[in-house]
C-alpha cells in the first residue's frame, strides 16, 4: 500500500472452456483474475481486486419424465479463490437440482458448503480476518402456474462452524388471477440472523485502531404486494408496495486481537470487565487497561429500522404510440435504537411516520414525419 501513488496499473481477464448444445451433459471450466493494481471504477464497477478464481460447473438434463419430474436438471458447482500472494481466500461448492413435476408443480433444492475464508473487507480497512466456514441449504416449491391461484414457499438456511452463527429465512407467495386482466401477488418473508462476528466500530486508542465486533440477534419481516390491472388494452394500473421492519440487538462485544489465528477463540478478546454502559449518552465506555479511566468509546449499535415504499402507476395510451403516465410514490422511514422487534408495534409505528409523497406526470407524444 503506497498512499503517495497517483495512479494504479493492473490487469484482469476471464478464460472459459465448456460444452453445451443439445447434449444432456453440460460442463464449464473457468478462470477469472483481477490483479491488485486493477482499478475499473472510473469506467465501470470492480467489486474486488487481488483475486484469482477457478470455477467448475457440470449439469445434467433429464429431458424425459424421470421419477416424479416431467423434466429434471441436476447441477454440481465448485469454486476456489486465492490472492496474488498465493493465499487461499475462499473455497466452496454445492449441488442443486429440480424442475417441473408431473402434476405441474415446481420444486428446486440445493445444499452447499463453504470452507474458512480470508476476508479483506470484514475489518473495514483493517487486516485480513479468517471467517468460519458454513453450510447452506435452500428449497423452493410452487404449485401449478396454470391455475387462477398459485402458492409458493421458499426457504434458505445457513449454519457457520465454530461460533453458533446461523441465518434462516422463509418466504411465502400467493398469486391470484380472478380474471385475465387482473393479477395480485403477495410475498411475505421473515428472516432470523444470529451472527457472532458482526462489525460494530473502529475507535482509536493512542492512535491505534481497535476493531470491535459483537454478536447480533436480528429479526426481519417484510411483505411485498404487486397488483397489475389492465382495464382496457390502452389503460392499465400497476401498484407496488412493501412494508419492511428489521431490528437487531448486540451482545458479547469483542476486540479483534489476532485476525489470522488458527483457533477461532484466539482471534479476539471478549470485553467484560473493561466495558461500562452509559445510558445518558447511549454509549459504551471501554477501559482497556483497567486503570479506572476510559480509553475509548462506541455508540450502542442496537437498531430498529422500519420503512414503507410504494408506487402507483396509471398508464394511458391516448393515441397509438403516445402515452401518459401518472405516478404516485410514497415513502415512510423510521428508526429507533432500542433493537426490540414487535410486529404489532412496529407496523403501527411505521404507518404513524409522516410520509414523503412524490407525484410525477410523464407525457410521450408520437410524431409521424
Key features?
single chain; 369 residues; mainly beta; 16-stranded antiparallel sheet; three-stranded antiparallel sheet; globular
Topology overview:
Layout: E1 12-19, E2 25-34, E3 51-62, E4 72-82, E5 88-100, E6 106-114, E7 117-119, E8 129-131, E9 134-142, E10 149-160, E11 166-179, E12 182-201, E13 204-205, E14 208-209, E15 212-232, E16 235-256, E17 268-270, E18 275-278, E19 283-286, E20 296-299, E21 303-319, E22 322-336, H1 343-350, E23 356-364
Antiparallel strand pairs: 1-2, 2-3, 3-4, 4-5, 5-6, 6-9, 7-8, 9-10, 10-11, 11-12, 12-15, 13-14, 15-16, 16-17, 16-21, 18-19, 19-20, 21-22, 22-23
Characterization of the model:
The chain has one helix spanning 343-350; strands at residues 12-19, 25-34, 51-62, 72-82, 88-100, 106-114, 117-119, 129-131, 134-142, 149-160, 166-179, 182-201, 204-205, 208-209, 212-232, 235-256, 268-270, 275-278, 283-286, 296-299, 303-319, 322-336, 356-364. The chain is an all-beta fold and 369 residues long. The protein has a domain at 176-369. The strands form four sheets. The protein has a 16-stranded antiparallel beta sheet that branches. Strands 18-19-20 form a three-stranded antiparallel beta sheet, with no helix packed on it. A two-stranded antiparallel sheet has the order 7-8. The protein is globular and about 75 Å long.
Amino acid at each position: 500500500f503506497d498512499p503517495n501513488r497517483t495512479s494504479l496499473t493492473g490487469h484482469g481477464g476471464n478464460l472459459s472452456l465448456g460444452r453445451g448444445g443439445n447434449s444432456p451433459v453440460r460442463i464449464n471450466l473457468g478462470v477469472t483474475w483481477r490483479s491488485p493494481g486493477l482499478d475499473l471504477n472510473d469506467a465501470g464497477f470492480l467489486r474486488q481486486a487481488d483475486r484469482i478464481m477457478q470455477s467448475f460447473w457440470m449439469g445434467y438434463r433429464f429431458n424425459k419424465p424421470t421419477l416424479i419430474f416431467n423434466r429434471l436438471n441436476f447441477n454440481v458447482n465448485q469454486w476456489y479463490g486465492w490472492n496474488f500472494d498465493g493465499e487461499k481466500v475462499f473455497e466452496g461448492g454445492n449441488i442443486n437440482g429440480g424442475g417441473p413435476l408431473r402434476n405441474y408443480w415446481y420444486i428446486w433444492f440445493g445444499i452447499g458448503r463453504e470452507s474458512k475464508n480470508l476476508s479483506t473487507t470484514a475489518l473495514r480497512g483493517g487486516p485480513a480476518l479468517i471467517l468460519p466456514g458454513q453450510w447452506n441449504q435452500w428449497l423452493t416449491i410452487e404449485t401449478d402456474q396454470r391455475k387462477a391461484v398459485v402458492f409458493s414457499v421458499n426457504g434458505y438456511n445457513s449454519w457457520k462452524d465454530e461460533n453458533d452463527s446461523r441465518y434462516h429465512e422463509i418466504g411465502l407467495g400467493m398469486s391470484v388471477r380472478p380474471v385475465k386482466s387482473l393479477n395480485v401477488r403477495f410475498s411475505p418473508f421473515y428472516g432470523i440472523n444470529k451472527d457472532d462476528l458482526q462489525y460494530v466500530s473502529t475507535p482509536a486508542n493512542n492512535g491505534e485502531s481497535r476493531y470491535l465486533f459483537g454478536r447480533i440477534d436480528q429479526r426481519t419481516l417484510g411483505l411485498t404486494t404487486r397488483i397489475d390491472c389492465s382495464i382496457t388494452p390502452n389503460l392499465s394500473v400497476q401498484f407496488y408496495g412493501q412494508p419492511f421492519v428489521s431490528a437487531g440487538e448486540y451482545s458479547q462485544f469483542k476486540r479483534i486481537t489476532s485476525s489470522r489465528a488458527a483457533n477461532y477463540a484466539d482471534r479476539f478478546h471478549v470485553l467484560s470487565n473493561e466495558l461500562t454502559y452509559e445510558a445518558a449518552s447511549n454509549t459504551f465506555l471501554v477501559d482497556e487497561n483497567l486503570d479506572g479511566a476510559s480509553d475509548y468509546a462506541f455508540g450502542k449499535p442496537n437498531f430498529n429500522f422500519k420503512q414503507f415504499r410504494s408506487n402507483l402507476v396509471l398508464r394511458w395510451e391516448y393515441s397509438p404510440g403516445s402515452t401518459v403516465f401518472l405516478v404516485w410514490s410514497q415513502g415512510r422511514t423510521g428508526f429507533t435504537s432500542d433493537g426490540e422487534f414487535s410486529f404489532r408495534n412496529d407496523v403501527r409505528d411505521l404507518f404513524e411516520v409522516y410520509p414523503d409523497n412524490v407525484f410525477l406526470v410523464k407525457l410521450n407524444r408520437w410524431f409521424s414525419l
